[in-house]
Amino acid sequence: MAKPTTAEPAHSGLSPRQRRRVSLGIQYAVFVVILVAIVLLADWPRIAQNFFNGEVARGMFPELFTIALKNTVIFTISGYVLGFFLGLVLALMRLSSVGVYRAVALVYIEIFRGLPALIIFLLLGFGLPIAFPGFKLPGDIYGTVALALGLVAAAYMAESFRAGIQAVPKGQMEAARSLGMRPGRAMISIILPQAIRIVIPPLTNELILLFKDSSLVFTLGVTAATTELTKFGSDATIDNANSTPLIVAGATYLLITIPLGIVVRRLEARQGRKR
Length: 275
Prior knowledge:
transmembrane helix, MetI-like fold, transport, 77% helix, cell membrane, mainly alpha, MetI-like_sf, Amino acid ABC transporter permease
């Protein structure tokens, strides 16, 4: 009795490398077709008039830098400084041997990492005057924005600091204690400097996030003197019935965030080489 024959699978005759090249060629071809279609179908004169209008862009200077960018930087730096120190305290509380400290820090971190920054801004801007009539933060709008950004940043920085502290070898603390150094002194002089160096990349990344989150200041009702980049660009867009101010404001953000992003990547690469 003859055995049933099975059909051999057909082979394309292409090696895996050749199939990969064909696949990449098809993907590039699709990309080129889409790009050409966009170039041919787009109304470039209208795009230039509505998004890249030089006359409208020139009308934004020098206020774009002297007011909008200046305020954005002030909001960002003040919130970052507050978040840095509050986050450091929270990290130490999370690592404390006192259960109450750990619980308070954990609840704070979970709440402020879970809530959108917009809600924090609204609660501070409208909730504080209701809860404490007549109370005003120092610096008025600047103080409110610094507190809002700082509270949000602290929750994220705390976890970065905690990870950095735990990454320092335990032998460092043991060696400091063997030399007669008190735990608090050893933490400040030995552990924290090393931990901060370890977490510089995520801390720099948090600065980028705060720079962008500062745009939420519009919820507090800013004036012409306290406006920031996004609000400035939005108002100019409405006044000119043209979208160019938004493009200019976005480009100004990129002038800050792209160099900071490059710094973060280089710091991360340096940390990786050290490991």
